[in-house]
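Weekly puzzle thread! Below is a chain. First person to post its structure in token form gets bragging rights.
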Amino acid sequence: MREPAEHRSGQLNEPQRRRLMVTCKYIDGLLCEIESALESARSHSPFPRYVVDVTPAQARHIESEISRLRDELLRFLAWQELAPQPPDIPVTRSVLTDLSFIDNAVEELKPRYMRGCGPVPEDALEPLNQSIRGLQAMVRDLQGYIRHEVREEPKG
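Winning reply:
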């Protein structure tokens, strides 16, 4: 029995090639999560997720191994003449989307929404509304900056 003419020796079939690509992309996503956990030490978040229990030298070693793993993933894909697709989502779109979610979350802190958790004390109304207005103004300023300043600058 002969193989189809388009099949080369050692080449995976299309479903196998897709699975290879999807799995490598999944692995890279997990590597991104590891990098994010390591970078959390540099974050100024008031709500950190991780306790950083590695030294800077250990973090550098882990990052180096991540780089090696990624190089190997690329070699693995190249074996089947595959390569990752270039990115197609602008960072500005991602940031603007997240800022919209932030704006919605802040909106839901308004007293009319908070009443579902019980009455908002009268003496808390103005400070609550003032904080909400301040947060919303900051979010909208950042949205405006991204829409009008970042998107207009030449990309280098």
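Puzzle host: Confirmed. Bonus trivia for everyone else. The chain is about 65% helix and 0% strand.
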